[in-house]
Amino acid sequence: MKLLIIEDEQELSNSVVTYLSSENYLCEQAFTYQEAMEKIDVYDYDCVLLDLMLPGGNGLDILRSIRSKRNPVGVIIVSAKDSLDNKVQGLAIGADDYLAKPFHLPELSMRIYAIIRRKEFSANNILQSNGLSIDLLSKTVSIDTEVLPLTRTEYGLLLFLIGNKNRVISKGAMAEHLSGDMADMLDNHDFVYAHIKNLKAKLAGAGCKDCIKNIYGTGYQWVEE
């Protein structure tokens, strides 16, 4: 799951990134209004943490831009401006949640999880697909009673595929999802093939075969029966 932290206080932003990275989120940062707008225009995210007071502009304008493009990404406003007017205005524009500073990192993590679960997995904690059972809270994958030993990257890739079931996803989109804006600096996306190969082998070894289809020259597809 990929997050964008829009926060001009670098120490706070780095603390959030450190904590959420330990929770297996891929985190990107923007410290100014302009940086945030550039990332929002180019990349896709599962959730955005949005400060209101930013160098160069107002976070509410970023939120307006996101919603004007019908971008369904989850947005949590995280701001010291905790007045009722700001909260109501942000929620009216299209924010999914509002968290006033200072806040506890575990609470932030659970709010992010709740939004992603609601938007992408129909509010379920347990995701079922092709005989797989995925516990989104414990981040474990099992077939029957056998737990699959997936790496963090393989787990993230599996969720991305299932979240886009029956759609063909390009290698470029997968590379961006796994490595964020660093994908633009890579010479090729061969690492995606390596992770797909390992994930398919683990799934097949547990009896879940042919779930991931290689669409020649295009990308990959999770086929749900």
From TrEMBL:
One annotated GO molecular function: phosphorelay response regulator activity
Matching SMART domains: REC (SM00448), Trans_reg_C (SM00862)
InterPro entries for this protein: CheY-like_superfamily, OmpR/PhoB-type_DNA-bd, Sig_transdc_resp-reg_C-effctor, Sig_transdc_resp-reg_receiver, WalR-like, WH-like_DNA-bd_sf
Keyword Transcription: yes
Cellular component terms per the entry's GO annotation: cytosol; protein-DNA complex
GO process terms (BP): regulation of DNA-templated transcription
Keywords, in A-Z order: DNA-binding, Phosphoprotein, Transcription, Transcription regulation, Two-component regulatory system
Transcription is among the record's keywords: yes
Source organism superkingdom: Bacteria
OmpR/PhoB-type domain ranges (all copies): 124-224
DNA-binding residue intervals: 124-224
Response regulatory domain location: 2-116
CDD domains linked: trans_reg_C (cd00383)
Residue numbers carrying 4-aspartylphosphate: D51
Protein name: DNA-binding response OmpR family regulator
Organism, as annotated: Bacteroides reticulotermitis
